[in-house]
Amino acid sequence: MTPRKRLATLACLGGLVAAASVVAVANGGNAQAGRTIHLLETEVNPIAVPIGRHQGVRAGDESVSSRSLFTTQKKPAGRFNYSCVATRGGPNYILICTGVYELSGGTLVGTAVAVPDGSPNTIHVAVTGGTGAYEGARGSIVSAGSATGFAKDTIHLLP
């Protein structure tokens, strides 16, 4: 996957989904315990939804995707759905992304800002809440792309 595609994909919160799934499996659904979790997520290219006909990224362009989440032993852990919208286009574009992770005990929600900053294989996500077992969840996720087809996600949930 090219660095540009990886940035667009990661910017769309691929890491949050995987993190939420591992939390549900490894933490018994208790997002309030405060812990670090390691997950894998499939790196599927998002579907681009451009506004009009043009090259590159323009304000208003969107991308959407749905990904599978796995434990580090590659056992199914959940599903991640996200969308990103460009608030500024051009070579210095800005993407605002929101993702919802469907897990056995509820959902986990996260938000990220993506810009072309020279590190296209890493995205930082803020955990902004959840439902069910994840109600009131807060913390962060770091998602790092790899050549294996799976992003490696490190999830930090605060107590």
How would you portray this structure in words?
By secondary structure, the protein is mostly beta strands. The N and C termini lie far apart (36 Å). It has a single domain, classed as AOC barrel-like (Beta Barrel). The protein is built from two helices and nine strands. The protein is globular.
Topology of this protein?
Elements: H1 3-11, H2 14-26, E1 35-42, E2 47-49, E3 62-70, E4 76-88, E5 94-103, E6 106-114, E7 122-130, E8 139-144, E9 150-157
Antiparallel strand pairs: 1-3, 1-9, 2-3, 3-4, 4-5, 5-6, 6-7, 7-8, 8-9
**CATH superfamily label:** Allene oxide cyclase-like
Helix content: 10-25%
β-strand percent reads over 45%
Q: Could you list the spans in which at least 5 consecutive residues all have pLDDT below 50?
A: 1-27
CATH topology: AOC barrel-like
Outline: globular
End-to-end Cα distance: 36 Å
**What characterizes the major β-sheet?**
8 strands, antiparallel, barrel
- How confident is the prediction overall: mean pLDDT? 78
Number of strands: 9
User: Treating each run of at least 4 consecutive H or I residues as one helix, how many helices?
Assistant: 2
By CATH reckoning, the class would read Mainly Beta
Order of helices and strands: HHEEEEEEEEE
List descriptors:
single chain, 159 residues, AOC barrel-like, 9 strands
Offer a quick outline of the entry.
The chain has 159 residues and is mainly beta. The chain has helices at residues 3-11, 14-26, and strands spanning 35-42, 47-49, 62-70, 76-88, 94-103, 106-114, 122-130, 139-144, 150-157.
